[in-house]
Amino acid sequence: MSTTSAPEGAVQAIEEGLARLGTSFRDAFASAPTEQALRLEYAKVLGKKGDLTAVLALMRNVAPAERPRAGAAVNAFREQVESAFAARLHAITRAVRDAELNARPYDLSLPGRTELGRGHAHPIHQVRDELLGIFRELGFAIAEGPEVELEENNFTKLNFPPDHPATDMQDSFWLASAEGARVLLRTHTSNMQVREMSTHAPPLAVVSAGRVFRRDDDLTHSPMFHQIEGFLVDEGVSLADLRGVLTAFVERLYGPGTPVRFRPSFFPFVEPGVEVDVGCVFCRKADGSYAGCRVCKQSGWLEVLGAGMIHPEVFRHCDIDSEKYTGFAFGMGIDRVAMLKYGVPNIRLMFESDPRFLSQF
Ligand code: DAH
Predict the structure, then answer these.
(1) Taking Cα atoms as reference points, which of 204, 294, 308, 305 lies closest to residue 250?
(2) Which among 228, 271, 231, 277 is positioned nearest to 254, based on CA atoms?
(3) Nearest atom, ligand 1, residue 274 CA
(4) N or C, fewer C-beta in 10 Å, the chain?
(5) Residue nearest (by alpha carbon) to ligand 1 atom 7
């Protein structure tokens, strides 16, 4: 028995073992469909209980002088496996990423998101539509007008004297004048009287609602707020008609039996002019008496609008014969009606567009 044959045979055994393992791992790797399957195949070759471990067990029979040769063969094999594994792993990860990129960005099978809910009209708009709806029922037509207005429609033709404080820079938002025309953000919806009466012949019954602007800013005043304007022009219209229409309106808005009170007042475009109060909707009792409360300041009355008989000067500016026709007009803040209706103490809440506030209506 040769003393060198055993070690010589041991190296051969290793080389044969490696040859037996051959390149079948390549096919196994290539057909592994997922990273997990690939790692399993890898473990079958290079894992602790893998094929190579069995071959390495033969290493202890190898003479020290032959070990480098055997080791080199093993390392070469190991490197082939490692690089085939790395290449396949790269291909698989890439295929997965490509599939993700090409997939639809959404999953049609997911349940819908219901937490967004449905929107609804702003509380001011809800109240505006309610007010307009009542006047429409009473036979009024609805008109719309611009927020940027000529001085003459907002002031002059409504009989404001040129030096009236409302026309002051401190009170109104004036815009850069165009071609000599003085232009501002309308300070009230009364401009609609001029616009409608200048373009339509009586009889007329019109309401119009929209935004108006003044240099005002505190708890109950916002530089932008909302008004509704109404007027009626025909032969023989009197203050009694105004009272009748406003009573019908207030009863529809606040319930039957709600009383209306006129107090003398002044607005340049009406004569006579009145402030109109309604019985306090918060402390009115079933028998018609009033307990008195914070909202009406213990008076039992809420001030809700300005009104009056259209001034002959206004008719003249609109080419309407004031000998033949008379008419009444009224103007009301919508925001205050909404604040009273919903008990909102600060007008700014209405315009901050905070969904936590708006979702309560
Ligand atoms: N335009 C007035 C204001 O903004 C409100 C008003 C008062 C309108 C009397 C009218 C009216 O039509 O007759 O304060």
Answers:
(1) 305
(2) 277
(3) 9
(4) N
(5) 306
